[in-house]
Model the fold of this input.
Amino acid sequence: MTTSTPAIEIRDMRVDYGSFMAVNDISLTVPPGEVCGLVGPNGAGKTSTFKVLTTLMHPTYGEVRLCGLDLFDDPESAREILGYMPDFAPVPGDLRAWEFLDLFAHAHGLGSRSRRRERVEQCLEEVHMTEKRNAWCRELSRGQTQRLVLAKTLLHRPKVMILDEPASGMDPLSRRDLRMTLRHLATNGVAVIVSSHILSELADMCTSLCVMNRGQILSAGPVDTVRQQLGNADRTLAITVLPGHAAAAAPLVEAWPGVRGLTTQGERLSFHFTGSGEDQAALLAALLTAGVKVRSFEEQKSTFEDILVQVAEGNRARHD
Done:
């Protein structure tokens, strides 16, 4: 694979279940070193996309390549460079953590016992589970089990990783460690595509996002680009002024075109705004010209929770 070869390349992929179309002619490219978040409401097509990427099913039609390898012409070679971490992966309780990893290291053909043990210890350290190496799997918490499965996924040094809800059950510290692990992998050229319902975590964890709905890709690209494309134009602005200036600021703001729902709490004014960026700058200039001393002028961007709520409500409206 050259540096210009995409790690994941999907072209015109469609997935049908009988008469139901789950994925509708999607195309997506993820380069090496990218951490791409796949998000969308239930029924968006994420699970079907993951099943195809992990060679668990064939699409109705379309092309899928991992690091240049055709997923359907050469699935065995593709699996050698693929790491898959499903949600709620089964872990046998009667094995110790290191034994569980050694079992998969042996299955991957990672060499002699000493070489396998070395790799097992490296992966345990990567997910901050070294102190649990001798613990029975049945004794691990949900979050610890997730970290152990992630260590298993890292064993054979995959070039492409597919992670389905990896942060499920993890405490905040473990989720922070997960972010650090994914960033380290990306730095080494590994491409990661990750699905999660913890959308704020995805925004911090990923370098790009792919938002799906009803089998189609609504937007894909850098995090800020996706937020801008799908975010509501009706955004919230907050202005904080120095003491004694709120009374002068409030009527000016309330009369400004595009402003609605003004609320004032002490020296802080909050309101919805539908104007352009130039309109927003003009409002600030008008306040300063009027002698209002502005301490801060903030824009609250649409969160990914807001975006997905809008998408889900759009689905509901179509069915009503």
User: Anything to note?
Assistant: The chain has a mean pLDDT of 89.
